[in-house]
């Protein structure tokens, strides 16, 4: 079983990013992974500060970097972890992705909201990370608890969604959590009514359809102990909204979604409707990449410690 080897976490010292750091420290401990903490100082802020204080720009840059580095070390220590700290001046998304590539990170962890208000949805940086990072991305919600107890894994029966289910099982084994394997379906008697002989589907057809889909979902998910698994079918004509509604009803702490599959799950959560959906989705989100990516490794506990 492959393990996470390197984790990068972006920290802007907001409450949400500090929670992201706590989760990153915990996940790194499960795997014995190296942790890199990145803080990016806005270049324009440094330039403006140098102009106002009439101090050489290089001096302001050096002082800001030293101060940020010391604060990063303090926050990592308070979170109970060990990490390599990285301070850069420039564009946050560019500098974070640079570190992700330089260290061949297996997981990028960022706060979902950063300095933005939680009720405004995921921040711009979080959305950019979801879309551009070449590895798994964990967005930690502002209301995230200390552990992921209720985990919803989205299933469209693709290989990537199988990876999402495996990921959920590993997280649940570490957190003593419950897994909801979720499949959003659009009832064919609503969408493809023109293919049936009558306007109302026969009750037997509905039962057969749902029973077959439920059995397929259960076979796909499996049920390895000690994880608790619940297979859920949820009808909705729009994939993304259905995911949000179910996650809210289930009280999800973590939603796991494959970045590429057989359906429009990816576009539902990482495409043009992301901002609206993330505004409504009040839990942390883990996006997993297809297995063919050389950077993909499952979150799993260290060998000999946890199953």
Q: Tell me the major beta sheet.
A: 10 strands, mixed
> Mind telling me the CATH class?
Alpha Beta
Q: In whole angstroms, how far apart are the ends? A: 11 Å
Q: What structural category arises from helix and sheet content?
A: alpha/beta
- Give the CATH topology: Rossmann fold
Poorly predicted segments: 117-121, 293-307
Q: What is the H-and-E element order?
A: EHEHHEHEHEEHEHHEHEHHE
Number of domains: 1
The best one-word shape is: elongated
- Biggest sheet, spatial arrangement of strands: 3-2-1-4-5-10-9-6-7-8
Structural topology:
Layout: E1 6-10, H1 15-31, E2 34-42, H2 43-53, H3 57-78, E3 84-90, H4 92-102, E4 107-111, H5 124-132, E5 136-140, E6 150-154, H6 159-175, E7 178-185, H7 188-191, H8 203-221, E8 228-235, H9 239-250, E9 254-258, H10 265-270, H11 274-280, E10 284-288
Parallel strand pairs: 1-2, 1-4, 2-3, 4-5, 6-7, 6-9, 7-8, 9-10
Antiparallel strand pairs: 5-10
Helix pairs in contact: 2-3
If you had to describe this structure to a student in words, what would you say it looks like?
The protein is built from 11 helices and 10 strands. The protein is α/β, with parallel strands linked by helices and 307 residues long. It has a single domain, classed as Rossmann fold (3-Layer(aba) Sandwich). Strands 3-2-1-4-5-10-9-6-7-8 form a 10-stranded mixed β-sheet, with helices on both faces. Strand 1 (6-10), helix 1 (15-31) and strand 2 form a beta-alpha-beta unit. The longest helix has 22 residues, at 57-78.
């Amino acid at each position: 079983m492959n393990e996470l080897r390197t984790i990068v976490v972006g920290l802007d010292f907001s409450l949400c990013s500090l929670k992201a750091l706590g989760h990153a420290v915990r996940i790194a401990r499960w795997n014995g992974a190296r942790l890199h903490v990145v803080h990016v100082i806005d270049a324009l802020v440094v330039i403006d500060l140098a102009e106002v204080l009439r101090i050489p720009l290089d001096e302001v840059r050096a002082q800001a970097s030293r101060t940020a580095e010391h604060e990063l070390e303090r926050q990592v220590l308070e979170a109970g972890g060990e990490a390599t700290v990285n301070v850069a001046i420039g564009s946050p998304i560019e500098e974070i992705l640079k570190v992700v590539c330089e260290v061949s990170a297996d997981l990028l962890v960022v706060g979902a909201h950063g300095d933005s208000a939680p009720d405004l949805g995921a921040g711009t940086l979080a959305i950019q990370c979801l879309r551009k990072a070449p590895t798994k991305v964990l967005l930690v919600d502002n209301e995230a608890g200390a552990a992921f107890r209720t985990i919803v894994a989205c299933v469209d029966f693709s290989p990537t969604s199988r990876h999402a289910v495996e990921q959920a099982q590993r997280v649940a084994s570490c957190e003593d959590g419950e897994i909801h394997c979720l499949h959003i379906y659009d009832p064919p008697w609503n969408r493809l009514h023109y293919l049936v002989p009558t306007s109302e589907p026969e009750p037997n057809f509905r039962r057969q359809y749902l029973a077959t889909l439920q059995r397929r979902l259960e076979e796909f998910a499996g049920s390895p102990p000690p994880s608790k698994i619940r297979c859920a079918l949820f009808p909705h004509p729009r994939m993304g909204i259905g995911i949000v509604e179910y996650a809210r009803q289930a009280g999800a702490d973590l939603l796991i979604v494959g970045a590429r599959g057989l359906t429009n799950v990816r576009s539902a959560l990482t495409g043009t409707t992301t901002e609206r959906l993330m505004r409504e989705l009040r839990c942390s989100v883990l996006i997993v990449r297809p297995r063919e990516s050389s950077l993909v490794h499952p979150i799993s506990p260290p060998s000999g410690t946890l199953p």
